[in-house]
Amino acid sequence: MTKSEIGLIGLGTMGAMLALNIAEKGFAISVFNRTTATTKSFFDASGDLAQRITPCDTLEALIASIARPRAIILMVPAGEAVDEQIAALRPLLDKDDLIIDAGNANFNDTNRRAAEAATAGVPFLGIGVSGGEEGARHGPSIMGGGDKAHWDRVAHILRAISAKYDGTPCATWMGKGGAGHFVKTVHNGIEYADMQMIAEAYGVMRDGFGMTAANCAATFDRWNKGPLQSYLTEISGKVAAATDAKTGKAMLDVILDRAGQKGTGRWTAIEAQHLAAPIPVIEAAVTARNLSAQLDTRTEGEALFGAAPQRLAADALSLDDLEAALIAGKILCYTQGFALLSAANPAFGWDLPLPEVARVWREGCIIRSSMLNDMASALSDAPDRNLMFAPFFTGLLQANHGALRRVVATSMTNGLPVPALSAALSYFDIMRTGRSTANMIQAQRDFFGAHGFERIGETGAHHGPWGNH
Ligand code: 6PG
Question: Which of 227, 380, 390, 423 is deepest in the core (most CB within 10 A)?
Fold first, then answer.
């Protein structure tokens, strides 16, 4: 019997879609799921692709059906399940068989697993796969981590199944160990921020302008034809246009405002703090999700203090202001995201290829957008330059930061919550303040802790004359 070129364990939504994608691109694949019935129903529903799929009821059968040196993709829930699956697999595998964790792993776990594999002398990859179910089936963005030689063994398959941007596969090796999963984590932090800023603009339209969901939908559709073109702008228009069959109301108007989170954006914020890399827009988005979960507290607060959101005067803001504010907020958010990627390099011994990161995010992933092509160009010209200082983006910020300020100021004045957009504005202002107020912090620290401070124009540490007060 012809051996499969690759194996996959875990036929949940993402795993099943990835397996079909691999088979569709012409690769023979063996599949296994802990629940045998799932494997059977997956195979029975695979149609013409069944000819390239070998369903296996045991790990032993899976391994026996794959050509050596084997490669096996794990699509199991992040965390202990991955370690358990690796522990179950390793004793059955040959020394040069490759395990590929393609789940949403915490990159610190992937760093550990890569180190354990290296010690054992066995191959291991951790790859970030972005694009949800649709992406997994028809073309995700793939961010690889591990030894380059191990990536090269399966790169032809990963590039074949990945999304394409102008024919270029959105699949790249990012670096050793957890580099791929780290890039995916930053992708998800940016995803949270993009989604939050869109939600804040929706709030200004709904509560400030009094617009219906349908009107918001038309606005998002229009914005999606301009600089804000992106998957998230597109789907925001679609969800705003949707009607609830049960009530006939706008779907958005019947959905409870309590956001879920698997925690990927939170990991971004945690790591940024470890690296002292400022990502205030992403942190504001994670906090906004946490606050959305406190629905009862917010309802109590509204009863006590009165509802915050107020209707805006007709000429207070325009939809063009909102669009411009989102353009500025997006640039400032991605500036922070790419700066976080750079900050990880010395900490983890990586050399994350920032232009390539922007390129593989142009298609397939959740944050895919037209602006990412401009970011790829700007980063190619100067990978170490702060993205907002790239001429193209400096120009866009100069043209749009006034609108960001108007939207934030007007929203604040009228109780319309804009935590991510206001974080973007404050970051913009701080990044153009040559004389900040951190001298006051230095004086305070030296007063209570004798921590010392630098004097303008002088070297060495100094202390203030606080001792005699
Ligand atoms: C992707 C998505 C995906 C993410 C889910 C849920 O890139 O395909 O980012 O990986 O896990 O969208 O994420 P949250 O539950 O954290 O919102």
Answer: 423
The pair phi, psi for residue 164, each rounded to 5°, is -125, 140
Expressed in angstroms and rounded, the spacing between residue 90 Cα and the centre of ligand 1 is 29
Among the options 3, 95, 116, 191, which is catalytic? 191
Three-state DSSP state, 112: helix
Is residue 24 among the annotated active site residues?
Answer: no
Q: What is the pLDDT of residue 467?
A: 76
Could you give the domains of the chain? 6-177 (3.40.50.720), 185-431 (1.10.1040.10), 439-469 (1.20.5.320)
Taking the C-alpha atoms of residue 150 and residue 176, their distance in angstroms, rounded to an integer, is 10
Residue nearest to atom 12 of ligand 1 (CA): 132
What value does the mean pLDDT take over residues 212-227?
Answer: 98
Atom of ligand 1 nearest to the CA of 188: 9
Our CA angle for 233, 315, 236, nearest 5°, is 10
pLDDT in tens, 37-82: 999 999 999 999 999 999 999 999 999 999 999 999 999 999 999 9
Q: Quickly list H helices, 263-353.
A: 264-274, 280-292, 295-305, 319-348
Q: Which residues on adjacent β-strands are paired with residue 74?
A: 9, 101
Ligand 1, atom nearest to 367 Cα: 7
> Reading across the β-sheet that carries 53-56, which strands appear in turn?
53-56, 29-32, 6-9, 71-74, 98-101, 124-130, 141-146, 171-175
How distant, in Å, are the alpha carbons of 114, 145, 171, 209 from that of 108?
A: 10, 12, 21, 44
Residue 312 CB partners (closer than 8 Å, separation 6+): 204, 208, 209, 410, 414, 416
- In this predicted structure, what is the pLDDT of residue 2? 85
| pTM of this prediction exceeds 0.85 | yes
Average pLDDT over residues 248-274: 97
264 pocket-lining for ligand 1 (C-beta < 6 Å):
yes
Q: Which atom of ligand 1 is least distant from the CA of 192?
A: 17
pLDDT band of residue 305 (cuts 50, 70, 90) is very high
